[in-house]
Amino acid sequence: MAILYHEQTKIFTMHTKNSTYQMQVGAYGYLLHLYYGSKIEGQELTYLLQYNDRGFSSNPAEAYKDRTFSLDFLPQEYSVFGMGDYRESGLQLQNTDGSFDVQLTYKSHEIYQGKRRLEGLPASYGTEKEVESLVITLQDEVTKVEVDLLYSVFEELDTITRSVQVRNKGIGTITLEKVMSCCLDFMNRCDFDYMTFYGKHTLERQVERTPIRHGKMSVESVRGCSSHQQNPFVILCDQDANEMHGECYGFSFVYSGNFKATVEVDQIHQTRFVMGIHDTGFCFTLEPGEAFVAPEVMMVYSEQGLGALSRNYHTLIQEHICRGKFKKARRPVLINNWEGTYFDFTAEKLASIAKDASKLGIEMLVMDDGWFGVRNDDYSGLGDWFVNTNKLQGGLSKLVEEVNSYGMKFGIWFEPEMVNEDSDLYRTHPDWCLKTPTREGNRSRFQYVLDMSREEVRTYLYERITAILKEANIEYIKWDMNRHLTNVYSISLPANRQGEVYHRYVLGLYDLLERLTTENPHVLFEGCSGGGGRFDAGMLYYSPQIWTSDNTDPIDRLRIQYGTSFGYPISSMGSHVSAIPNHQTGRVTPLHTRGVVAMSGTFGYELDMNKMTEEEKEEIKEQVAMYKKYYNTINYGAYYRLTNPYSSERFVAWEFVSEDGKNVLVNFVLTKPEHNPPIINIKLQGLERNKRYRVAGTEEVYTGAALMNAGYHLKEQFGDYTAVQIALELYE
To answer: What CATH number does domain 340-353+366-404+416-543 carry, 3.30.70.100, 3.20.20.70, 3.40.50.2300, 3.40.50.1970?
Structure first.
């Protein structure tokens, strides 16, 4: 069993394949955290607790004269504000009488096989054979507030998930001001590095690694979504940890709205980590009998470095977050018309692109922005989800039928959460926006945000999207969101509940996506928010791939996709070949290099085929064939970061090994050519030491041990941004 409880000592122990997590119902009923780290069996770890009389650290009333028991320094499983712990708290609420006191002690627990769903929220899932779960109920004896701490153990993936449910079992109203999903204390440790993934629009998930310090360090978003600027995935690791060595703790928040991840080093060099919904702008009222469910945090432990941590996350998300037909089915190679035509297209032009693309092995045409309402620029039309038959003469079904006749699937772009002022929808329902009634409101991209917390808004969007899906054979939806939230006010809620709008917005989004994806299992959904502005595990529950960035420059993409890979699988990263000079950076790179970089993701093109030479088309045909040949190896094999683009100036390299170990694909991009260069030697990873591998198309044969320890010599490369792909096959 993965979860054990010892009745006499009141110790809970959770084991994964390589880790142990232990806690105890300690003195006076408080739940104390004992240990999380490398696997330890047959040992109670209560000896790690240290009781001291520390100045200015208060003691609970039950402790009476025992000044050595204080919540201010003891490691807690779930901390609360107002009762003597001055560190970052997990829970803060205001009681009916206006007080902030909440005192949580053990009430009961339950251990069961499998995993229950979180109401209204995306979360990991698994069968009774794959996962075991624990619920510990804590209670405030005075107010009767109950808090369920929810744990699930995916033993083979070294994963423990955590969530929280707060129930008002009292007779008066309470107000939640902060409900974090995860609180984790590390006794006697303050020597971690904090790895976070910052960025901006067109340069998302850049890696930042900083030693933690006394006080608090936070990454967060108050933009209404997980954002380009910070990502709800972070890592605490040994300061000398690298790809293959060191202890690493990953934390992935399964949520797409405001979040905060805080690490704090306290007065006696202990580290606390807290993650959950951001408390800024958050205030949730619970009437008697009501409950609040906090989103899930997926914790992954690795004692073998960052690479093993990432590969566990990749499998976890592919197998236990993504759902439906497309979680493992081969997805089509697509061509999107956006960078090829922008708003300037007709049905004839799109059909021509599809016809040419079909000859190259491309399998789907995606019609991007501009097909609906009066939409020839981004100043009008959003919200009017009706086909513009002036632009698409003959209607949508005629175009789709023609595209299908070339053996191509058809996809379409939506931005359902937004509305332009210059639209029929806004003129009819201006009150459907998030906007304070007494103010005009902020615009961004000349659009407002629809109030997704309102059922009538979701009903309208559901009906319009469903009508479009029924009109033609549509097999893909790109779901975009091109601004962040401001003036967050809903006229459907009273003044004292406006602090619920941010969260209710996200719940409304999830409700609509759940309905649409459930009723249309044949449709592949791809998430997008100006590219990678909402790239999180919550969205991957509904859309198994997300457009990684609006920046298609392959050299910038080396860092974007590198950073993304720490917490998210290759199969989740939308990645396309685009035209040169690149539309975001102006950089000129070879078509082959653009293909090699884009191939490390869900592959596609952003080109106007009518503008390409025959030589370029032939090269694209070869790229598509290569991607299809190694599709499973790339998307579902083991991924290895062979170089760090932040420290390796000359080149970047990465590797895929198929699930059966028979195929290996090494990718290389020269980022800084020089005359008379040093030898390029790449040490591979993940091979069988005593087996032999042949370089495809040659007679070169090497042992796995040689390739991993001595490395592989690459021939000298010349020119700007040249790229190489090396395929190896297990040599029987």
So the answer is: 3.20.20.70
